[in-house]
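Re: weekly structure request thread

Next one in the queue (64 aa):
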Amino acid sequence: MKSVYDIQQLLKKYGTFIYTGSRLGDLHMFEMELDELHGLGFIEQELYVKAKLILKKEITSLKK
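Done, posted below.
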């Protein structure tokens, strides 16, 4: 997993399609969905951590 696109594709595997019209809004929704999938045990810890780091980096770059 290397990009936000990869995270989007992961979420699609679980039937989650997110488009709010706001890039920042989308990223926050991705985070919430990842939290839910991890909490339910659908994705392993390593994948979860990588995805969260990618999202945090992207959110930080958008806020600058």
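The mean pLDDT is 96. The longest helix spans residues 45-63.
Next request, please.
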